[in-house]
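Deliverable D4.2, example record:
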Amino acid sequence: MERLRVGMIGAGGHAQSHFAMIAAEPEVELVAVAEIDPDRLARARQAHGPKHGFTDYRQMLDTCELDMVYVVTMPGHLTPIVLDCLERGLHTSIEKPVGMSSQDARQMLEASARSRGKAIVSVNRRYKPEVLATKRLVLERGGAVHVAATYNKPLTSLGTPEMAGIAPAPIICDAIHHVDLLRWLAGPALETAAHPTEVYAESWQGERPGSVRYDATVLFETGCRGVMMSHYGVGFRIQRAEAHAEDFSAYLDLTGEPKYALYADGKPRQGPLDLDAVGGPDFNETKHFVTCIREDKTPWSSLEDLVKTMEMCEAIAEGVKGAV
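Output generated by the structure prediction step:
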């Protein structure tokens, strides 16, 4: 079977993890990179070895025979590029967020429905083997009754409004990772996320530019409750999550390499997570997307599903108190 021919649009910091996943996946071949910054394009070509390089992504799409495209740009530029790729029938991996609003996400969803290509959204927490193995244990206990997520950053870190210049940038462009993780951990099956039905949120500005605060309680269709806390302009970059089921609790630290602490029936649960049961320690979104393309399946993080995450982000940013 021939390898899938891949093009990358955008070669900045976020693209590096995608380059690594492509290099590790034997069923794909990096053919071309498009990047508007000539110096960054040159570095990407030297580091990752694509046959072709372009400063205009349209020229890449016009001249290269591609099967898959990764769109890894700043959020404000994402929507028209994704629409172009889908209209050309290309399988498209979309860096989070899905544009700057749920309206952008719905535009992409409509284009996807007309396209021969599949689309996946890069909310990579869903695909971390440790997260999947933890979720599997939660489901074995009947599913989550409570989930929680913390996503904090200092102003010296990425994720402030300046990263996109458009409100509500911090939660749409950055903390969306853990808004989506709440949905994922609360999901009723390993491959599905839970839909929020009510949100009770507070959103406010701190004293300094970029100091944005979010606190939210969420009710999901499954009956699970969730708590989200995200603050910009605090002491350190912290990313943590919890998932609780009957007589079971999991505490995840995703600040760096994933760490976890598990408790069952009133005592610590001994032994490692069963990563092989969820695709192995090297499982990631690119491996999943290739499987979906080969087997004509819908990706777990589809555009249809990510519209819900974008709507939940907007509800939190707007301080909604009630049904969503």
